[in-house]
Design brief:
The complex is a heterodimer of chains A (472) and B (86).
Chain A (H helix, E strand, L loop, with lengths): L6 H18 L3 H4 L3 H5 L11 H15 L10 E3 L12 E3 L10 H5 L5 E3 L5 E3 L9 H5 L5 E3 L3 H5 L5 E3 L5 E3 L9 H5 L5 E3 L3 H8 L7 E6 L12 H11 L3 E4 H19 L2 E2 L4 H10 L13 H12 L3 E7 L3 H5 L11 E4 H10 L17 H4 L6 H12 L9 E5 L1 H12 L7 E5 L18 H10 L6 H6 L3
Parallel strand pairs in A: 9-10, 9-12, 11-15, 12-13, 14-15
Antiparallel strand pairs in A: 1-8, 2-5, 3-4, 6-7
Helix pairs in contact in A: 1-4, 1-9, 1-15, 11-13, 11-17
Chain B lengths: L1 E5 L2 H4 L3 H14 L7 E5 L10 E5 L2 E6 L1 H20 L1
Parallel strand pairs in B: 1-2
Antiparallel strand pairs in B: 1-3, 3-4
The chains are: A alpha/beta (472), B alpha+beta (86).
Chain lengths: 472, 86
């Protein structure tokens, strides 16, 4: 059964699994330097020029699996020696240019950057070109290609540049830790730091009376598709988690609080997506006052658990790399002890050699339909609409704009900053599709949204107020 | 007195919200708001197919349902508070 989208993810998983395995056995310290050789044994390279380079890079991956560079505050890091220094020339004419008569490329170029040599072959004048890509779109031979690096292409907030050594470099002031570059880099040279060791060390304290709660994001419904959701929940308990609670119940709490704050203030931008919040703070500081003051669903439910339970520790498990950054903030730090991605959970299961498909099914039911659909773009706005209705607020008309991906977020924020936005609520999701498009997902597929909606409909509680009524 | 009603998944689908409502009503009926703190708890660790788990101070009671609620409330909550007052 195929577990991942790409072989880069699979490689990262193998490193995480081995690090976790050694940690469970208390042998990590003595074996840490051997892990690269365990993964690449023999003498025939399969990924790079030689096994020695492969192992050197794996050494760096082991470091990332163990929490990465402590001096770098960003949870996303570039592994310099893994960066293949891809060509970064932008749009270029290739040998496929046949020197045709139509010259669509020339006609479409508003900058006059295209000229032709004596063989009628097109050339792009880089001093005039603005990399708009129109010429590539109209060429009937697809002869014009974009040689932009995949990482730079993925990073819509333009936080990635090229350093003096020709490797990718991340500007931490701009980076939102969304992980788009992590997922897109074909060489796996950009990766998220893992806190899998923190989670294991918490789980090991079970015998000392520590209760570790797994807070799972609703997007889990589109993951681990080779098993049943109930088996994943059972697997979490087998790993040593005391209980599994839906982050979606936190989402129900947020929907209620968010709707109240919105009615009070008249305009709000959502605070569920940490990458969106971070983007507003860095690129639209003048709009930061409109960011909802509510906790994210993860933080809201974790806070509740910590305040009502002695000796409770919380581990959030989701699709998101930016959540790893969110829990470093002073506001959230006291409530969430570690963040894992679905990739890391898969590694954790396999580090104990659990075949979750053989486990009996446990149950997961805390939240309402509306809390659960937060996992996909539009869900938050639907939930706020519902929360306004359920609370009987009548003299307020919600005009929400749901932004699918950080580029749409940018457009909405730009309009708002120019007072040209006809909306009073911006739901911002940095990843395309919402959380189901997160970089920490095992797989990304077209069916994911339908899976989330299906999971939402399976919730026992149909209204937000019913779901949160147990918390009073 | 602290009354924790389990609102974890297993108890939730067996009617936590109903037990919470029964507690809320009984507490207000007997005017015990100052004596009893009602809180939710995610998994008391004693999941039972017969009903909801409830922890009253240090004692865990499993399988609480609509039928057994009144007897439990009278004995473990009302009874204890009355004897403390005497």
């Amino acid at each position: 059964m195929r577990k991942f989208d790409t072989k880069v993810q699979h490689l990262k998983y193998k490193v995480l699994r081995e690090v976790a395995r050694q940690a469970w056995n208390d042998t990590l310290l003595e074996n840490v330097l051997e892990i690269p050789k365990m993964i690449v044994s023999g003498k025939v390279p399969t990924m790079r020029c030689c096994v020695y380079k492969e192992r050197a890079i794996l050494g760096e991956r082991v470091k990332m699996a163990m929490g990465g560079n402590k001096d770098n505050p960003n949870v996303i890091e570039v592994i310099d020696i893994a960066c293949d220094e891809c060509p970064a020339a932008g749009y270029e004419v290739t040998e496929s240019c046949r020197g045709c008569l139509a010259h669509r490329c020339e006609d479409v170029c508003k900058r006059g950057a295209i000229s032709f040599d004596q063989n009628h072959v097109a050339h792009i004048d880089k001093s005039k070109c603005v990399e708009c890509g129109q010429c590539a779109k109209v060429c009937p031979f697809s002869a014009i290609v974009n040689r932009k690096r995949p990482c730079q292409n993925a990073c819509k907030v333009k936080a990635i540049s090229i350093n003096d050594d020709n490797a990718a470099a991340i500007n931490n002031d701009k980076c939102t830790s969304c992980g788009a570059c992590v997922y897109q880099c074909p060489f796996g040279a950009i990766t998220d730091k893992s806190y899998i060791l923190d989670a294991i060390s918490l789980l090991k304290q079970k015998e000392q009376g520590v209760k570790v709660y797994a807070i799972v994001a609703p997007s889990i419904s589109s993951q681990f598709t080779y098993a049943k959701l109930g088996q994943v929940i059972k697997g979490l308990k087998e790993l040593g988690f005391h209980a599994v609670v839906e982050a979606a119940l936190g989402a129900d709490m947020v929907a209620l609080a968010e709707s109240k704050e919105l009615v009070e203030k008249g305009f709000l931008t959502s605070s569920c997506c940490p990458a969106f919040v971070s983007y507003i703070k860095s690129d639209f500081p003048e709009l930061a006052e409109h960011i909802s003051h509510n906790f994210s669903p993860m933080a809201a439910i974790s806070k509740y658990i910590k305040e009502t339970t002695e000796n409770a520790k919380t581990v959030f498990i989701g699709p998101c790399t930016a959540k790893k950054a969110e829990v470093q903030s002073d506001k959230v730090k006291p409530y969430v002890d570690a963040v894992l991605t679905f990739e890391e959970l898969q590694a954790l299961f396999d580090s104990r050699d659990f075949d979750i498909t053989t486990l009996e099914e446990d149950v997961l039911d805390n939240a309402s339909y509306f809390g659960r659909i937060f996992a996909r773009c539009g869900g938050l706005a639907d939930a706020v609409t519902q929360a306004i209705k359920e609370q009987g607020i009548e003299d307020f008309e919600l005009k929400a704009v749901s932004c699918d991906g950080i580029e749409e977020c940018r457009m909405a924020l730009l309009r708002k900053s120019k007072n040209a936005l006809d909306a009073n609520f911006i739901e911002g999701m940095a990843c395309i599709g919402g959380c189901i498009g997160g970089a920490g997902c095992l797989t990304h597929g077209e069916k994911n949204k339908a899976e989330v909606d299906k999971y939402g409909r399976e919730a026992m509680e149909k209204s937000i107020l019913d779901a949160v009524s147990v918390l009073k | 007195m602290i009354v924790q009603v389990c609102v974890g998944s297993s108890c939730h689908i067996r009617g936590s919200d109903e037990i919470v409502t029964l507690f809320q009503n009984a507490i207000s009926e007997h005017k015990l708001e100052n004596d009893v703190t009602l809180v939710g708890s995610f998994c008391i660790g004693k999941c039972s197919p017969n009903g909801v788990s409830v922890q009253i101070d240090d004692e865990v009671l499993v399988g609480v349902n609509r039928q057994s609620f009144n007897e439990l409330f009278n004995e473990k909550v009302l009874g204890v508070i009355k004897s403390e007052r005497e």
